[in-house]
Amino acid sequence: MAEGAPRRQPTLDEVAERAGVSRxxxxxxxxxxxxxSRAKREAVQRVVRQLGYVPNPTARALATRxxxxxxxxxxxxxxxxxxxxFFAQVIVGASAALEEADLHLMLCLAASDRGRERVAxxxxxxxxxxxxxxxxxxxxxxxxLAEQAExxxxxxxxxxxxxPRWYVDADNAxxxxxxxxxxxxxxxxxxxxxxxxxxxxxxRARYRGYRDAMLGAGIDPLPPVEADFTEAGGAAAMAxxxxxxxxxxxxxxxxxxxxxxxxxxxxEAGRPVPAEVAVVGFDDLAxxxxxxxxxxxxxxxxxxxxxxxxxxxxALVGGQDPTPLILPTRLVVRASA
Amino acid sequence: MAEGAPRRQPTLDEVAERAGVSRxxxxxxxxxxxxxSRAKREAVQRVVRQLGYVPNPTARALATRxxxxxxxxxxxxxxxxxxxxFFAQVIVGASAALEEADLHLMLCLAASDRGRERVAxxxxxxxxxxxxxxxxxxxxxxxxLAEQAExxxxxxxxxxxxxPRWYVDADNAxxxxxxxxxxxxxxxxxxxxxxxxxxxxxxRARYRGYRDAMLGAGIDPLPPVEADFTEAGGAAAMAxxxxxxxxxxxxxxxxxxxxxxxxxxxxEAGRPVPAEVAVVGFDDLAxxxxxxxxxxxxxxxxxxxxxxxxxxxxALVGGQDPTPLILPTRLVVRASA
DNA sequence: CCGGGAACTGGAAGCGGTTCCAGTCCCGTT
DNA sequence: AACGGGACTGGAACCGCTTCCAGTTCCCGG
Lengths: 337, 337
Description:
Two copies of one chain form a homodimer.
Chain A: H1 12-19, H2 23-30, H3 38-51, H4 57-64, E1 69-75, H5 85-100, E2 104-110, H6 113-124, E3 130-134, H7 141-148, E4 153-156, E5 167-170, H8 172-185, E6 191-195, H9 201-216, E7 225-226, H10 231-244, E8 250-253, H11 256-268, E9 278-283, H12 286-290, E10 296-299, H13 302-317, E11 325-327, E12 330-332
Parallel strand pairs in A: 1-2, 1-3, 3-4, 4-5, 5-11, 6-7, 6-8, 8-9, 9-10
Antiparallel strand pairs in A: 10-12
The first copy, chain A, binds a DNA duplex through helix 1, helix 2 and helix 4.
């Protein structure tokens, strides 16, 4: 906290006065806008340096009607959803892109009513210049809020049931299809899917990809075993799957967390991977590399997803009209399949 | 974006006018401050509801000199440090605590010069009501910035070489000692440590804990093999350790990521865990439970760490003077040791 | 019926910038 | 020497909300 100087931060008025110019000129000099003579511009800069003046962002925000911040809101019924390393990677990308545009990142975990209310206030009260929305579920109240927001909104992944104007998504269906086709191409026939939450578009799309691949190969898809994208959920779903279809020889899990859970269940059930059951995940999180056996998985460019969301938002804030983006996925073959 | 109504957000003036009161009264009614008659208070509330009025946070911030936001800054020479799931958990805790105080969370990944500069501006320009600082390294430029900041600063973990006035930390040395003592108690004698970066206080403290335990048992500690807290680093360090001391029978890794890397190296080297080499980690991240074998590790309450940092900051912002906190750790025994 | 204090009220002064706009200045032209 | 125009300049009006303070109003005991 403050040590010596109880002196307030210098204001632009003080800078102007010391530099012997008016506040307007000082302001222009600061933002190096035109209509400032060389001499005065330098005078202002000198005083700024000498006083260590830093403009008050709040005042600037009020005057320009721009907050200088973008919000990333992660929906979920439970804050622990955020513990998924997926989001951390998104943030790394988004943060870098926002930094380029000199925007700050506000992070909102909209996991409670209170949290959603705060997001609503943010949206309606212009508490940020724009918002990135992720992890929406079916009938997510945030979707409605975003609809009415008079503020740029970019979706990360698409919400269920509607296609927003601006979004960045991975090719979930395509990746899932590729994963399933790979399993089929290795001679697996009784291929099941541990699908993610079907109240999310990612879960649905990945299931569609699985189903299309199966149908394309002329094999009846097995009924999806739904889990919640967590390791524990994947483990439980795998157990359920073994109970119902003990003869599966291939499993496409809709994300790596679930795949790792499945791996654990299979190990405990004494079913060697990939000898008896081949497993493919989705995401290519760090855990995929570390799993035993290392996980064959569909890599989606998560950091790029964050980066592109942020760039899209920056473009929107800048008055442009960017087009939605679908990022490609790529199968990474390791030992599990 | 805006669909129909090009109508601006209503302002407090409009609310006041429609409610037939002055702006001051409207303001007081809004913040339910005293000195407003029941009738007018209700009139204001009615209009607010009917207009869907939301106060402009920027204007409020300017007037109250409070931004309504707290920043969490994560230092690092590379944004990828943030991919460590550790931070996500901190955020879950911090976010919840800030929500209670109705503060927003700004996340700053100070991984570049530009990033640090922005943090500096935040600190000097009063862009937030307070700051939480994490992952500082030796001679971290952020430490100096924090020093001069006329703003509450809470440290997550202690910086190297100095003890700040306000911080929340885990009992790193104690946890490391417990881990090492556990290994010793199980009959291991050639116990080594894969220490984390020794330019961080956490790395040092955990090394001290290891050393103290060894000395306490009358055994010469092995020279620490330093790694960077990553899985890859842990794997490499383990390889180096095997090359130098092929006869180790116990390893304390200063975090779970490194422990998992060590597990991988040991598996590849054909050294069964825990039969030949017992491994203990630190953190108890999700990966510990999933590792093969499941990792015995020192759990630190990461979410609580975030929560307590945020609470401490809230207290500081509220003018109180909280005391530093050291959170206890606890050994979680699984199969790897 | 009056005095006095408590409860309310609203005008006005900020908070610290940005930006519009009406002037000034300074030159090169005519 | 008067003139037109572009480059500068600074006064003043915001941006939208909080809060101080000087009044008003209201109510109650005397």
